[in-house]
Amino acid sequence: PKTDTLFVEVLDSTAPEFEVIKCEDSTVEVIVTDDNYPSYAVLLEEGNEVITDGSSSVPYRYSTPGLKTIRVEGVYEDATRNCGVTTQTVDVGEFTNNGRITGLRLSRSCLTSVDATVFLDWDPQQRYELQYSVGRTAAPITVFSGQITSDSLFFPTLTTDTENDICFRLNALSTCNEAVIEGGNVCRDNPNAVDAAIENAYATYEGGDIALYFDEIAIGGFEGEREVLGFDPEPLDTLFPGFVDRNVSPFREYIYRIGFSDTCGNVVPPAEILTSFVQSRETRINQQLVTWKAAENQLASNFLQQVVVVGAGQEKTISNPDNPVEVFLEEPLGPRQEILLRTIYADGTIIESNRVPVDYEYRAYLPDAFTPNGDFLNDELRLIGLTNEAINWKIYNRWGEVVFTSQSAEVGWDGTYRGSRAPGGVYFYDLTFLNSENETIRQTGSFVLIRN
Fold it and tell me: Which 8-state DSSP code applies to residue 15?
């Protein structure tokens, strides 16, 4: 029998990909963005079809504005027209700028450059250019041109100066005749506008160590040195915000110098910071004369100072003290106590000095003299510093007679004996009490009763 053979090639019916770009005067450009087919049929409106190989755009001007549907079909030569089809709707008409900048984030990358993230709202059927300028009146520089496909664009190391704001604007572009519709400027403070410095640098004791805190300036490296007052400076091998120097003593003054070099070769002169330093000496039992040097740093000058005595998990504070200031040690803070200077700044930053160890001796404080003359000043001899009611207090005159007894720290002597005024002169006392550790303490001494 007679035969015939027909070979048929079966190909995928892939939907073509294309973009529609709006121009002015109801004109569009259709751009095929794939190469799956040798040819494409672009149907712009009924009765108007253009065949293209996709290597160039297909411009078309509509006679009337409004919503238009554009259909693109993949075409194989000598094949049935049943290949993949894609449609898009476009609103043609007056050429406008439908894009806008919704946000702008700037950060230093070097001392003379910034990293910028621009957040955008855009029309996918529009081309744009994004420009930036250093200063509101400077000539803009184009950093992006084309179709936008994400909500944000990132631009590293844009060149800046240290004086002007940074502005961005989003312009609409027409690919048909190169027309441009400029957007409005969106400006932000330039993070390089502050003169290059190691900002907010300070040193504080943390326990027995000194921690250094300062702001990150930009991408680069910090370097520094430590100087013990009276000795040669020593370099710090590694330095970063929050660096802790563990090789320190609470009895020495320290000066730190912090410098910075960024990756662009810019160098910041070192900032010099000093820890606050406290000294104390005993003036009498359980009484310390405290002096200090205030911290020197890059923080604001508005602050509150406190002399603090800590011990036994508690603390006693004296706010806005004179320098020097008399500090009384108290029994509830235990036998081992520490004195420090605490500085509280307006922004909440707290700086602490070295801690001076002091010993509390379990003794009651009794004035050297009192004047029971009815002027309401030192009219009664009182014990100070006792928290335990278990006491036995006796006062003797110079002949050994007991002129006053008390079993309460809240009861003092008013200078009378058997209902009459005791004469002026030296008196002696004998006191026993229990301390906070339930130990029996005996204390003896003398004082003067003064009569005018």
Answer: P
Residues 272, 257: contact at Cβ < 8 Å? yes
**Taking Cα atoms as reference points, which of 89, 30, 20 lies closest to residue 54?**
30
Amino acid identity of residue 415, one-letter, is: G
Mean pLDDT, the chain, as a whole number?
91
Tell me the pLDDT tens digit for each residue of 164-199. 899 999 999 987 877 899 999 999 998 887 667 788
Instruction: Pull the structure tokens for residue 39.
Output: 């040819």
The Cα 338–Cα 310 span in angstroms is 5
133 CB contacts (<8 Å, ≥6 apart)? 139, 140, 141, 166, 167, 185
Give 57-101 pLDDT, tens digit per residue.
Answer: 999 999 999 999 999 999 998 888 888 999 999 999 888 898 999
Q: CA–CA separation, 427 vs 395, rounded Å?
A: 7
Residue 308: other Cβ atoms inside 10 A: 20
Residue with tokens 């100066």: 161
φ, ψ at 53 (rounded to 5°): -90, 0
The span from the CA of 89 to the CA of 106, in Å, is: 37
197 closest CA partner among 124, 299, 102: 299
Give the residue from 233, 183, 239 showing the smallest Cα distance to 211.
239
Cβ atoms 186, 116 nearer than 8 A = no
Q: What are the structure tokens assigned to 92, written together?
A: 């043609």
Phi-psi domain of 98 (left: phi exceeds 0; alpha: psi -120 through 50; beta: other)? alpha
Residue 288: CB atoms within 10 A of its CB come to: 22
Q: How far apart are the first and last CA of the chain?
A: 155
Q: Are strands 391-396 and 48-52 parallel, antiparallel or unpaired?
A: unpaired
Predicted confidence at residue 13, as pLDDT, reads: 87
> Of 122-131, 181-190, 211-220, 280-289, which range is least confident?
211-220
Contact 273, 258 (CB under 8 A): yes
- CA distance readout (Å), 261 to 200, 211, 219, 270: 17, 21, 9, 10
For 229, phi then psi, to 5°, come to: -55, 120
According to DSSP, the residues that pair with 341 across neighbouring strands are 307
Sign of CA dihedral 380, 386, 389, 395: negative
CA distance 70 to 22: 12
Are 356 and 339 a contacting pair, CB within 8 Å? Answer: yes
Mean pLDDT calculated for residue range 384-393: 79
Beta bridge partners of 442: 432
| Both tokens assigned to 451 | 């009569």
Instruction: Report pLDDT for 415.
Output: 95
